[in-house]
């Protein structure tokens, strides 16, 4: 993009076009002939990975918007309809939701890389500032996207974050009302968030163009921090950097697919599978993992306004980084002290992330203050001071000299990459343990046929579970997202279409008005859902001691419990996704006739070991011998509990088998592709070394 | 020496082609979900189940419009005059030759059931209008006769007959 293009059009058409719109020349000089330092390591491929992630998010987002309804009454169900009914909708939704996390993983690596190698230093200050602007836009976009499914976390996240602006003196409350478009978070809020969530990625794309433009004017930084001097210091962007980037992207896609296909809910909050309820706040409101460090900073300051100022200040300080650090040497490789402080800063960020996921009480608050101080001290004290006192190591004369003198550093790169993955896992796990303060032990982990990468549902078990739902649970609970036709679909309990029709016909569905303008009852059809036995919410409340029996369609995904350290690390590798089923099974068996000593049970409630607060309005629903099985399975409470839980897991995710099957194919494909790309890359680079 | 230099490029070419081919297959496969998502989803398909229509309220000479799969279906109780007119037409005079018997159910000749969408560009024709005692499309002037067959105007085909059957003498199931 800088200087006149070296592009020589060959064909007459290209010559004609080049004189009128030199776009081919622009592409050629920016992405083909563009000289890149020959010593770039794999930390530099995250720029390309970020471009890929932006494209993935925009494409999947446009498609999801075709099926999504931005209305408070329909948003939650429309997301579930995408996952359940739209062709490959589950894949698109998982890709978009996990993609947001991947985007932030990549951007954090990209930012830390810039920090370590001094990529923000002259002449690249504008490049860095544009990057910080992109990061701010990403934060706004990610937040608004998280609100759209209109679950509990969406709703309360929106409430909490918009309330940040109420800290502004004098006009704070007016600003918040303005942001909401109402007296509380509601439909106008959802509509504008949807509109802006659709718009901002294109603004990001625009700033990315500026970011890349600025990059191509100044040229890329590199691990030595020494500017390229001669031809020998650089290689052409294509094929050298291109091949390296494509290989990096392919490996990143492998990592990404692990989440898409095998643990789509690992990075999310179970509470967001409960529809938004303005009357009940979740016990702990936690933002998505990528905002946790800033959330910790917000909470560490015991003053509303100052907390908000500190949180925004933590990002704004990045804008001034090029002037806070005035050291002449760029790369921390040649700055022994800066290198140590850099890794200290990485630890500070991870610790802040972990603290952000913990309840704001006791030792956590104290630690959060210490690390908040350390965060700001790094920028405002350490870096300005270091640039004056540090004795740096001698820089190599040129990039090529550095490359020739050093052997391979691939081992070090791989080790640090692994360390980063582990650190990242640590942080994700922090999210899982966010509810640690609720106390109590965890429900026992059970063996489920659908667990693990090759897990499938046990069809006889699903059929038994359905029988229990029909004969016991359906007296109070609905399954509003499940249709009778689902019973006969692949991946389900394996009923025939005739059996499903017969089951539907047993239900009586309210329909109408007919030609005479009357409501009437008719037998159920395949397209009907498992509706609630109560005519309305009031009736359900009065029949159940004041508590509405929850809809069970998503129960197995909406229930969770803390796993704590170090389980979440194993959970990542073993693809543990069975919190919900373990909890439901434990709850069904957790009734005790006599509460433990010292526990006073409210009237009309029952003691349950696993229910939050141990006092549950639902009487023990199942007892031995209540439902008869044809297949000789024991007719006992443990068997019933397990069977109905498996059924509820299927009801929560009817596409689980399809997801894992496609996942295996994609993983195998990506491993082959990455291998081929690696050897191709090596072959191409062998000319250079 | 010569064998080695000639063998090298071949092996390299194979690697490049294999990598490119695998990447291309992956890109093509990745496009598929983005195309497939546009097809009707499972709940839309399930909602397109057959519907039942009660014929008792439709007097002779009247017609009703019902919806099936989002499309208007005309159910017309034809007069004897309309039936006779439809049967008297010579097939050679029709742009899309079909006998009235092919378009109605034996024993229920007075009932005409057609998809009420003009085969020209998708407008909804008006019943009991036009020159042929049948349907007239106001958009571009297509004329259909009392059997719903195209007689005049730009439409190329007759109004299609949807799949339907008589459940009883006074009830049909469409779909």
TrEMBL record, chain A:
Positions with a binding annotation for heme c: 473, 476-477, 618
Q: Where in the cell is it found?
A: Membrane
Give the UniProt record's GO annotations in the biological process aspect.
respiratory electron transport chain
Show where the Cytochrome b/b6 C-terminal region profile domain sits.
227-397
Q: Where is the Cytochrome b/b6 N-terminal region profile domain positioned along the sequence?
A: 13-224
The UniProt entry lists membrane topology as: Multi-pass membrane protein
Q: Which GO terms describe its cellular component?
A: membrane
Report the transmembrane regions from the record.
43-69, 90-111, 126-148, 160-183, 195-215, 246-263, 305-325, 337-356, 362-386, 407-428, 662-680
Which residue intervals define the domain Cytochrome c in the entry? Answer: 460-592
Family in the record: Belongs to the cytochrome b family. Belongs to the cytochrome c family.
Q: What does this protein do?
A: Component of the ubiquinol-cytochrome c reductase complex (complex III or cytochrome b-c1 complex), which is a respiratory chain that generates an electrochemical potential coupled to ATP synthesis.
Name of protein: Cytochrome b
Lineage, opening ranks: Bacteria, Pseudomonadati, Pseudomonadota, Alphaproteobacteria, Hyphomicrobiales
UniProtKB/TrEMBL annotation, chain B:
Keywords attached to this Swiss-Prot or TrEMBL record, sorted alphabetically, are: 2Fe-2S, Cell membrane, Disulfide bond, Electron transport, Iron, Iron-sulfur, Membrane, Metal-binding, Translocase, Transmembrane, Transmembrane helix, Transport
What is the free-text note on the cofactor? Binds 1 [2Fe-2S] cluster per subunit.
Origin, by domain of life?
Answer: Bacteria
GO MF terms, alphabetically ordered: 2 iron, 2 sulfur cluster binding; metal ion binding; quinol-cytochrome-c reductase activity
**What residue stretches are annotated with the Rieske domain?**
86-173
Native organism: Rhodopseudomonas palustris (strain HaA2)
> EC number(s) on record?
7.1.1.8
The name this protein goes by in its record: Ubiquinol-cytochrome c reductase iron-sulfur subunit
UniProt function note = Component of the ubiquinol-cytochrome c reductase complex (complex III or cytochrome b-c1 complex), which is a respiratory chain that generates an electrochemical potential coupled to ATP synthesis.
Q: Identify the stretch annotated as signal peptide in this record.
A: none
Q: Where are the transmembrane segments?
A: 14-35
Localization, per the record, is:
Cell membrane
InterPro entries assigned to the protein according to its UniProt record, in alphabetical order: Rieske_2Fe-2S (IPR017941), Rieske_2Fe-2S_sf (IPR036922), Rieske_Fe-S_prot (IPR014349), Rieske_Fe-S_prot_C (IPR005805), TAT_signal (IPR006311), TAT_signal_bac_arc (IPR019546), Ubiq_cytC_Rdtase_Fe-S_su_TAT (IPR019470), Ubiquinol_cyt_c_Rdtase_Fe-S-su (IPR006317)
The family this protein is said to belong to:
Belongs to the Rieske iron-sulfur protein family.
Q: How does it assemble?
A: The main subunits of complex b-c1 are: cytochrome b, cytochrome c1 and the Rieske protein.
Tell me what else is known: The Rieske protein is a high potential 2Fe-2S protein.
Catalyses: a quinol + 2 Fe(III)-[cytochrome c](out) = a quinone + 2 Fe(II)-[cytochrome c](out) + 2 H(+)(out)
Membrane topology label: Single-pass membrane protein
Needed cofactors, names only, are: [2Fe-2S] cluster
Source taxonomy: Bacteria, Pseudomonadati, Pseudomonadota, Alphaproteobacteria, Hyphomicrobiales
- Any single Pfam family the record assigns to this protein: UCR_Fe-S_N
State the GO CC annotations: plasma membrane
């Amino acid at each position: 993009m800088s200087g006149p293009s070296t592009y020589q059009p060959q064909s007459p058409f290209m010559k004609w076009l080049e004189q009128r719109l030199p776009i081919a020349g622009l592409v050629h000089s920016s992405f083909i002939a563009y000289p890149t330092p020959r010593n770039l390591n794999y930390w530099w491929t995250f720029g390309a990975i970020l471009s890929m992630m932006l494209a993935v998010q925009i494409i999947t987002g446009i498609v999801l918007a075709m099926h999504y309804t931005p209305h408070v009454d329909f948003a939650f169900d429309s997301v579930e309809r995408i996952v359940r009914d739209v062709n490959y909708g589950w894949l698109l939704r998982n890709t978009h939701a996990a993609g947001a996390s991947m985007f932030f993983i990549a951007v954090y690596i990209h930012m830390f890389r810039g920090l370590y190698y001094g990529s923000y230093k002259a002449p690249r200050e504008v490049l860095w500032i544009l990057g910080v602007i992109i990061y701010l836009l990403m934060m706004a976009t990610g937040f608004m996207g998280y609100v759209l499914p209109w679950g509990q976390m969406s709703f309360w996240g929106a409430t909490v974050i918009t309330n940040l602006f109420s800290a502004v003196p004098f006009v704070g409350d007016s600003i918040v009302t303005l942001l909401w478009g109402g007296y509380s978070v509601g439909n106008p809020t959802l509509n504008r968030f949807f509109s802006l969530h659709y718009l901002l990625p294109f603004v990001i794309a625009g700033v990315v163009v500026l970011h890349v433009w600025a990059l191509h004017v100044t040229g890329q930084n590199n691990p030595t921090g020494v500017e390229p001097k001669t031809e020998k210091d650089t290689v052409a962007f294509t094929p050298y950097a291109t091949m390296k980037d494509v290989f990096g992207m392919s490996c990143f896609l492998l990592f990404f697919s692990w989440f898409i296909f095998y643990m789509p809910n690992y990075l999310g909050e179970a509470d967001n599978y409960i529809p938004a309820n303005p009357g009940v706040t979740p016990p702990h409101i936690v933002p998505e993992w990528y905002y946790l460090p800033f959330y910790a900073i917000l909470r560490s300051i015991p003053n509303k306004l100052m907390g908000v100022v500190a949180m925004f200040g933590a990002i704004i300080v990045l804008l001034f980084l090029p002037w806070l650090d005035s050291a002449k040497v760029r790369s921390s490789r040649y700055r022994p002290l800066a290198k140590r402080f850099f890794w200290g800063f990485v630890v500070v960020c991870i610790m802040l992330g972990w603290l952000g996921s913990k309840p704001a009480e006791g030792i956590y608050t104290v630690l959060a203050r210490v690390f908040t101080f350390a965060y700001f001290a790094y920028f405002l004290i350490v870096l300005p001071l270091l640039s004056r006192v540090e004795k740096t190591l001698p820089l190599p004369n040129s990039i090529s000299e550095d490359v020739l003198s050093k052997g391979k550093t691939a081992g070090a790169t791989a080790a640090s990459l692994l360390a980063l993955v582990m650190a990242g896992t640590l942080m994700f796990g922090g999210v899982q343990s966010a509810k640690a303060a609720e106390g109590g032990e965890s429900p026992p982990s059970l063996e489920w046929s659908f667990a693990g990468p090759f897990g499938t549902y046990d069809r006889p078990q699903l059929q038994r579970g359905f029988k229990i739902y029909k004969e016991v649970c359906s007296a109070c609970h609905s399954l509003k997202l499940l249709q009778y036709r689902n019973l006969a679909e692949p991946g389900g309990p394996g009923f025939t279409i005739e059996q499903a029709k017969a089951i539907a016909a047993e239900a009586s569905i309210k329909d109408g008005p007919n030609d005479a303008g009357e409501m009437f009852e008719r037998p159920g059809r395949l397209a009907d859902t498992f509706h609630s036995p109560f005519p309305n919410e009031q009736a359900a409340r009065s029949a159940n001691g004041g508590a509405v029996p929850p809809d069970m369609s998503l129960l197995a995904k909406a229930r969770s419990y803390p796993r704590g350290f170090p389980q979440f690390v194993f959970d990542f590798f073993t693809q543990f996704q069975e919190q919900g089923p373990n909890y439901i099974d434990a709850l069904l068996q957790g009734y005790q006739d006599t509460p433990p000593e010292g526990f006073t049970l409210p009237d009309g409630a029952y003691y349950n070991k696993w229910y939050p607060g141990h006092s549950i309005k639902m009487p023990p629903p199942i007892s031995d011998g209540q439902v008869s099985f044809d297949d000789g399975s024991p007719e006992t409470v443990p068997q019933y509990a397990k069977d109905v839980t498996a059924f509820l897991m299927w009801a929560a995710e009817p596409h689980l088998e399809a997801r894992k099957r496609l996942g295996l194919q994609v993983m195998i494909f990506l491993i082959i592709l990455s291998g081929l790309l690696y050897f191709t890359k090596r072959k191409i680079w062998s000319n250079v070394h | 020496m010569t064998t080695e230099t000639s063998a090298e490029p071949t092996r390299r070419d194979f690697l490049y082609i294999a990598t490119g081919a695998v990447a291309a297959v992956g890109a093509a496969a990745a496009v598929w979900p983005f195309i497939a998502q546009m097809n009707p989803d499972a709940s839309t398909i399930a909602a397109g189940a057959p519907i039942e229509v009660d014929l008792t309220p439709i007097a002779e000479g009247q017609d009703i419009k019902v919806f099936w799969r989002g499309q208007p279906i005309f159910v017309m109780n034809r007069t004897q005059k309309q039936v006779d007119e439809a049967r008297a037409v010579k097939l050679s005079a029709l742009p899309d030759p079909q006998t009235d018997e092919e378009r109605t159910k034996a024993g229920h000749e007075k009932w005409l059931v057609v998809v009420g969408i003009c085969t020209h560009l998708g407008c909804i024709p008006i019943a009991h209008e036009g020159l042929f005692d049948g349907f007239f499309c106001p958009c571009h002037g297509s004329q259909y006769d009392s059997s719903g067959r195209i007689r005049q105007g730009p439409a190329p085909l007759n109004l299609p007959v949807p799949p339907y059957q008589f459940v009883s003498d006074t009830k049909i199931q469409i779909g």
